[in-house]
Amino acid sequence: xxxxxxxxxxxxxxxxxxxxxxxxxxxPTPLYHVxxxxxxxxxxxxxLIFGVYALSLLTALLTVGSLSDHLGRKPxxxxxxxxxxxxxxxxxxxxxxxxxxxxxxxQGFATGMATAVxxxxxxxxxxxxxxxxxxxxxxxxxxxxxMGCSLLVEFAPFPTTLIYWTLLSLMLLQALYLWRLPETVxxxxxxxxxxxxxxxxxxxxxxxxxxxxxxxxxxxAMGGFYxxxxxxxxxxxxxxxxxxxxxxxxxxxxxxGAVMIFSLxxxxxxxxxxxxxxxxxVGVGLILSAVHAASLPLxxxxxxxxxxxxxxxxxxxxxxxxxxxxxxxxxxxMSAFYVLSYLAFCVPSLLAGNLxxxxxxxxxxxxxxxxxxxxxxxxxxxxxLQDCARARATSNP
Length: 397
Description:
Blueprint: H1 4-26, H2 32-39, H3 43-63, H4 68-71, H5 73-92, H6 97-125, H7 130-155, H8 162-177, H9 191-194, H10 206-238, H11 243-263, H12 269-293, H13 296-321, H14 330-359, H15 361-395
Helix pairs in contact: 1-6, 1-7, 1-8, 3-6, 3-10, 3-14, 5-6, 5-8, 6-7, 6-14, 7-11, 7-13, 10-11, 10-12, 10-13, 10-14, 10-15, 11-13, 12-13, 12-15, 14-15
């Protein structure tokens, strides 16, 4: 049995490693306009570069997402770190769109592998704090990556490579320290069979997943739009050219989500889901107002509200579903949960990027925002109807 100090060290290392992967995932966002200006590609190509990351991540979740249930957590975490370091080297040596696509493809696969195995390892290590860390660490990581990269681009030398050298160094240290951790699951047969693409949702978690899914889809679709097109949208709507704006918006979105998660950590999952749906609808409505008012301060206020909805919706969905799995089902369930989340993260934003060619960025944003508001409010109504049905069943046994 591990000591309290060893337990805290393991939990802290796993949380920081998950944060590092997600920081790396958002680091390219403030650089997109630099890449665009240097390599002369369109908004559609920009969302393609973003989209291949998410699609590669999905591929990892569908294939190697359950692998650590069979091989153990540490070998799979190590493999993910090695792949992520390769992606950092590709970014550092980038000189064409093809290199960017290759870097994002490798990074997506590494992040998908890491998200599933680190999420499962956190739950193995601490059943109480694991779901909270799984919710907060990705958002804090995206905030650190986006804002840190923005600051380096604005004020530091080597703007397109310094962030990647920094992350590469961190990951190398993590790969070395990893082997000091205790393994949390025993090896079981079936590793090769687990690579066949599948979504494994344990029977006892399926109903909870369907209930939480609409809110989860809405919040991740909004997040995908922000991480791919928010910097371009602000430039188009307000004329701002600061390198800090894009990273600042992503940081506000994710930090407000993290604060909301921490604030609601002890509230029931169903109440958290309902609050997430309402805040998301209000926040997206304010974002659309900011676009048409060309108001940068309103952009940040709207992002703060929408980020609260992102955090509440994500936490509510995660806490409704993941604790229902048994120990050897956790990585598979985490993979299934993130597959559905990242489909919502990438597919709508890819569609939006293509629509900008025909309708322009502002009109596409209007349609996208209205769709998210309708989805969030529909989910809110569905949750209310479920509560009413539950109340009737209780009063009439």
